[in-house]
Design brief:
The structure holds two protein chains of two kinds. By secondary structure, chain A is an alpha/beta fold. Chain A folds into two domains: 5-275, 2-Layer Sandwich (Aconitase, domain 3); 287-465, Aconitase, domain 3, CATH 3.30.499. In chain A, 34% of the residues lie in helices and 17% in strands. Chain A contains 17 helices and 19 strands. In chain A, the strands form five sheets. Chain A has a five-stranded parallel sheet, with helices on both faces. The longest helix of chain A is centred in the N-terminal third of the chain and has 17 residues, at 77-93. Chain B is built from nine helices and seven strands; from the N terminus they run βααβαβαβαβββαααα. In chain B, strands 4-3-2-1-5-6-7 form a seven-stranded mixed sheet. Classes of the chains: A alpha/beta, B alpha/beta. Chains A and B meet through β1, α2, α3, α5 and β8 of A and α2, α3, α4, α6 and α7 of B. The structure holds iron/sulfur cluster (SF4). Iron/sulfur cluster is lined by residues 62-63, 107, 109, 128, 130, 345-346, 406, 409-410, 427-428 of chain A.
Chain lengths: 469, 200
């Protein structure tokens, strides 16, 4: 019988069926970070349990690290306690920690792929909802809560029910200036922020076939914003080429064997899906959010919707969004004043994101009064970008060049919005308060659109500003 | 580990209206700088409560009429956003023992179930009706009966659905999976040995 990748991976990792009907699923790779793991280690100690597979657990520190003054002790004593707790827990349990001084630290969803830890046909869990990112490699990757982090530490398994699979096809080539970020914002806009509840999203079609591995990661990253806990792309030559030679990727004869296995995990041609949805790449334009959830999005040349144009069920949230965002229904979003431009995060803080923007911003300057920061997703990305001269290009254009971390994606480190500042952001969430100020406003968009906002001081069409054609 | 069998939750209600209430709203990220969950309760909905106070209004959680309420009512897609267990932990430590909403985000739902805090799905019109009753009589006791799939208040019953797996877990006292998972550890080692990437 033809199977999906999810079917195959699920089967290979099922330990048994639990009394309540859920699956005890083996988690091949467990990624941990400082925010959601300390309580889990505490629970283990209370129960007198040990980490079962320390060699399959990998740690890094990302949410709380300052991106400018990175010397320890951190000035924030709570943040300092968190990094120390993680360091100590890893040392005691024998877990590999990509620590700050290692040169390999970074956002957990960037470090895993970069190190070659993220591999096709595996199961991955991490106490972070954007674990869906790793699905770009044909892994089944779940965001989990702290009690489940405890479960995975203690048993290398978790109790979970198998999701349904919705295949999402996107076909054709994207117009210049349209990126994978626009693709996922478009999908969420169409299917809704809870449209993926109970589903894994399998992304495919010729647009995805042509995407680089990093572009696929951007899409899978935001699956959770569409309500789908898992999102994946079937592994192919692009995936294998990306992994080859990475520190934790199989080597020598093992490489060939691994590639053969990985190929076999892809969904079979006649696989049955619970649902199939198709879009054309040509219908997608640069997309920006106007509201307080990622589904409240429009193309850059559209107008902020009027309540009367929205389905009944969306009106209350839309009304709340307009008040919070200080936007007017029926008005263009283009031209809205921007205070901060943030380029980074696990959605768009990879080398290709920085390269693409650097290509266009030469000769441009950040508009006076705009705070613009570039935060590489990992120390690895930072080092490469510096060696390639990208950091210099950004600095020359007036961006601040920072150290690796989650930074302004969420308010857990010194990078925060102040008051009701409006931020053009390449991150993934525009929830109220997300960027550290309860009244702060977030507009999600692709990295190049962030750059356009930085240089004009307002929400702009990057295609016009940078003459992308 | 014998856990309590949760078949009913009884308490007073508090209604926090809105759809898509995300975990950043339930517990703003800055309060996640902690290495234990102790003390999170006081920060539940911290920004929304502060904003209400600043506007001279009062957030339902601070409304003296609803102090001590243990059943939270809300809209659709409750708990969307991050996987932070800090969100259900904050609600639980605030004193909430069950949440009634039109729908729940998946990770939040699972995290709450693991805490023994049922997330029960109701029709929007029934939620509104319940909210109305609570508003006019904050002392009224709600009883959520998981076995009978209903919520009762005064002499009225409303259908209230908990998906079978969560219901089973709660009513049999198996809502925290760790004991079941630990029983399978030998089978886990066997399964892992068959996977080349885990054996290596
Ligand atoms: S960059 Fe943002 S979304 Fe990604 S892990 Fe960090 S805080 Fe979460």
């Amino acid at each position: 019988m033809s199977k999906t990748l999810l079917d195959k991976v699920w089967e290979a990792h099922t330990v048994r069926t639990l009394p309540n009907g859920s699956t005890q699923l083996l988690i091949g790779t467990h990624l941990i970070h400082e925010v959601t793991s300390p309580q889990a280690f505490g629970m283990l100690r209370d129960l007198g349990l040990k980490v079962l597979f320390p060699s399959r657990t990998f740690a890094t520190v990302d949410h709380i690290v300052p991106t400018d003054e990175r010397d320890e002790p951190f000035s924030d004593s709570l943040a300092d306690a968190m990094i120390k707790a993680l360091r100590e827990n890893c040392a005691q349990s024998g877990i590999k920690f990509f620590d700050l001084p290692s040169g390999q630290q970074g956002i957990v969803h960037i470090v895993g792929p970069e190190q070659g830890i993220t591999q096709p046909g595996t199961t991955i869990a991490c106490g972070d909802s954007h674990t869906s990112t790793h699905g770009a490699f044909g892994a089944i990757a779940f965001g989990i809560g702290t009690s489940q982090v405890r479960d995975v530490l203690a048993t290398q398994t978790m109790a979970i029910r198998k999701p349904k699979v919705r295949r999402i096809n996107v076909d054709g080539s994207l117009a210049p200036g349209v990126y994978s970020k626009d693709v996922i914002l478009h999908i969420i806009r169409k299917l809704g922020v809870n449209g993926g509840l109970g589903f894994a999203y399998e992304y495919g079609g010729s647009t995805f076939d042509a995407f680089t591995q990093e572009e696929r990661m951007t899409v899978c990253n935001m699956s959770i914003e569409g309500g789908a806990r898992v999102g994946y792309v079937n592994p192919d030559e692009t995936t294998f080429a990306y992994l080859k030679g990475r520190p934790y990727a199989p080597k020598g004869a093992q490489w060939e064997a691994a590639v053969a296995r990985w190929k076999a995990t892809a969904s079979d041609p006649g696989a049955a899906y619970d649902e199939v949805i198709s879009y054309k790449a040509s219908e997608i334009a640069p997309t920006v959010t106007w509201g307080i959830n990622p589904g409240q999005a429009i193309f850059i040349d559209e107008k902020v919707p009027r309540l009367s144009e929205l389905p009944d069920k969306d009106r209350a949230t839309a009304e709340e969004a307009l008040v919070h965002m200080q936007l007017k229904a029926g008005e263009p979003i283009k031209g809205t004043k921007v205070d901060v431009a943030f380029l980074g995060s696990c959605t768009n803080g990879r080398l290709s994101d920085l390269t693409e923007v650097a290509k266009h911003i030469r000769g441009h300057k950040v508009r006076r009064g705009v705070k613009a920061i570039v935060v590489p997703g990992s120390q690895g990305v930072a080092a490469l970008a510096e060696r390639m001269g990208l950091a210099a290009i950004f600095q020359e254009a007036g961006f601040e060049w920072r150290g690796a971390g989650c930074s302004m994606c969420l308010g857990m480190n010194p990078d925060k919005l102040v008051g009701d500042q409006l931020c053009a952001s390449s991150s993934n969430r525009n929830f109220k308060g997300r960027q550290g100020s309860p009244t702060g406003r977030t507009v999600l968009m692709s990295p190049l659109m962030v750059a356009a906002a930085a240089v004009t001081g307002e929400i702009s069409d990057a295609r016009e500003i940078f003459h992308v054609a | 580990m014998a856990l309590e069998k949760i078949t009913q939750v009884t308490g007073r209600g508090v209604y926090v209206p809105g759809d898509d209430i995300d975990t950043d709203r339930i517990i703003p990220a800055r309060f996640m700088k902690c290495v234990t969950f102790d003390g999170l309760g006081e920060f539940a909905f911290a920004d929304a409560r502060a904003a209400a106070a600043a506007e001279g209004t009062v957030h339902p959680l601070d409304d003296p009429r609803f102090v001590g309420a243990s059943v939270l009512l809300s809209g659709s897609n409750f708990g969307c956003g991050s996987s932070r267990e800090h969100a259900p932990q904050a609600l639980y430590r605030f004193g909430i023992r069950a949440v009634l909403a039109e729908s729940f985000a998946e990770i939040f739902f699972g995290n709450s179930t693991t805490l023994g805090m049922p997330c029960v799905v109701m029709r929007p019109e029934d939620l509104r009706a319940l909210a109305g009753i609570i508003a006019s009589d904050p002392a009224a006791l709600l009883t959520i009966d998981l076995l009978e799939s209903k919520v009762s208040i005064a002499d009225m019953d409303f259908p209230a659905i908990l998906p079978d797996h969560a219901k089973e877990a709660l009513v049999t006292g198996r809502w925290d999976a760790i004991a079941d998972l630990l029983e399978g550890v030998d089978a886990v080692r066997d399964r892992a040995a068959q996977l080349p990437y885990m054996a290596a």
